[in-house]
Amino acid sequence: MKNYLNKQTAYSHLIYIYCMELEKNIAQAYAELGNTFYKIVRLDLTKNEYNIVFEKPEIVIAAEKKIGACTELVDFLCNSGVVHEKDLKTIENYLEVNSLKKHFSANERLQLQIRRKIKDQFRWVTIVLFKSSLYSENSQIVWMFVNDIHDSMSRDIEIQRDLEYYCKYDTLTGVNNYYSYQLLCKNFISKTDKGSIGLIFADLNGLKLINDTRGHGAGNEFLQSFARKLLEHFSSEFIYRISGDEFLIVIPNCKENEFTFSAKKFENFLNQEPVPQAALGYCWMAHPVHIEDVSREAEIHMYQSKEAFYEKHPEYKRGIAELNYKREMDAILKTLANSYDAIITVDLIRDTFWILKQGPTATYGKDVDSYTKMSEKFLAAVDVEYKEMVSTINSIDNLRNDLRKKSSITMEFKMSNGRWVRTMFKAIETSNGEPTKILLITEHLDHDRILELEKTKDLMLEHQIIEGLSKGFTLICQIDVPTKNILVYKNISLKDSIPAAIKSLSYDAVINWFVGKFVVEEDRDRTANAIRLESVMAKLENRDVTTVLFRTTPEFHDTKSISYSMFYFYKLASNPNKLVLATKNVTNSMG
Predict the structure, then answer these.
(1) CB neighbours (10 Å) of residue 385?
(2) What's the whole-model pTM score?
(3) By CB distance 3.0 to 4.6 Å, which of 112, 345, 351, 530 could disulfide with 127?
(4) Is a pLDDT exceeding 80 seen at residue 545?
(5) Phi and psi of 227, rounded to 5°?
(6) Residue 505: closest CA among 525, 519, 484, 524
(7) How many whole angstroms separate alpha carbon 541 and alpha carbon 342?
C-alpha cells in the first residue's frame, strides 16, 4: 500500500509539471505522458466542452465521441456500461460540470478511483484532474488524466474483501457474527412494514468446562461441530454467533406454526444425544418493535431449558462451580497473602494437611508428613503459659468435636519469642454433620491489627473464603428465613442511605422497595413473584442455588443505560435457616 501511495504521489507530480508545460510543447508532453496514462482529456468548464487529446488504441471505444459537451461525456460514462454500476454515483456526483466548477473554485486537483471496462473486464482506474496553468474565472480549463491501477491495487482489493468478511462473519464457525446481528437489528428498526420474527436462542452446554479441562482447541472443535449442525437445519443467512457460546437463529417473515415446527425439530435432534450439545429457547412474534424483544423472551425460555439440563446432568453444573470456586479461592488467597502468615487446609480424617500459603519466614510443615506432627512442632515454639490451651484446641479430636457445635474457633496466644499469634479454624467440608476438612489461618499480629480484624472476621471468613463469593457481586445479604430479616454484608454500588433502609426493614419490605425503585417496569410483576421468599424456598428444596434474571434501571449499577441483573440465592451449609442473596450485573454476558 505504501508503494502504491508513493507511486500516486509521483503521478501527481508528473501531471502537475506537464499541466504547466502542455501549452509550450504539446507533442512532447503527449508522448511522455502516454507512457503513464492511457487517456488525456481537456475540459473547458466555461464552454461545457471536452476534447480527448490522447488515448491508447487498445482502450478506444467507437461509440465515445472525441469532442463534445462535458455533459455528454458524463452521460456516456453513466449509460454505456463502460463504468461499473457501483461507481456510477461517483461519476454523477464529481464529474458533472457544476460540481467540477465548485470544486476547482477552492482546490487545485481532484482524484477519483472507479472501475472501468477495458477489454471486456472491469479494472480499477484512477482519474486525476488538474487546473490548467491558464485557468481563470473566464476560462476554466481542466486537464483529466486516466491511468490503469488495477494490478497494483489487486492485493489491496483482496485485503479489503478479507476485512469485509471478518466484519460480517465469525472466523471460527463461518456463520454471521455479532456485528451482523447488530446491523440486522438496526435495519429492522428502520423498516416501516415490520413482519414477523421467529428466533431461537442456543447456549452451548459445558463449553467452559471443556475449555478449562481439555483446552481451548477442544472447545473450538465443540463450537464448530455445533455450527455444522445449525447449518444442516437452517439457512446460513439466519445464523448468528453473538458471544463465546451463544448462537441465534433469526428467521424473518415466517408463519408461527412453521417456525415452531422447525424449532422443535432441531430441539428433538439435539436431545437424541445422551448429553444435548445446547440448551434452546425460542419465541415467535407477529410484529415486534425490536428484534431484541424477541431475543429476550427466547433467552428466558433458554434459561429454563438450561436449568432442566442441570437437573438432569448435575455433574456439569458441579464441575463449573468447582472451577469457579477454585478461581475465586485463588483470588482470595492472593488478596489475603499480605496479611496472613499461613493458610492451610487440614483433612481431619486422614490427618494430612496442604499449605495454601505461608510467609517467607514461616516453616509450617517442614520435615513432617501429618497434621499431628506439624501441630507438635508448632507447639514447641509456643510460650509455656499457653501450651496447654493450644495443645487442647489443636488436637484433631477436639477440633472435630468443637467444630460440630460452632462454625469457627479463634484463639490468641503468645509465642516463646514474645510475638503474639492469632489462629483461626473453620470447617469447610462436612459429612453427616461431622467436620472432615478445615481451614487453618495463622497470623502474627500487633494489638491494633487484632482489633481491626475482630470487626470484620465474620464477613472475611464466612462470606469471602467459605462461600467463595467473588468481587464481581454488587450486593451480598444474609436472609434469616424464619424471621424474614435481612443483614447487609457487602455493598459496592448502592449509596449509604440504601443499606440503612435495608437494615431497618424486613425481607418483604425490602423486596417491595427494591422492585419499585430499581426494576424496569415491564419486569416488576414477574420479578416480584420470582423473588418472594416462598418461591425461592420452593426452588431451593432440591438444590443449593437458584437464580432470577431481570432488568434494572441505570441507578442500580451506576450505568448509562438499563442493565441485566441476576439474583443468586444460596443455601448456607452451616445453617439451613439462613440464605445468602448476592446480586451481579450480567449485562456483558448477555451479548
Answers:
(1) 10
(2) 0.38
(3) 112
(4) yes
(5) -60, -40
(6) 484
(7) 38
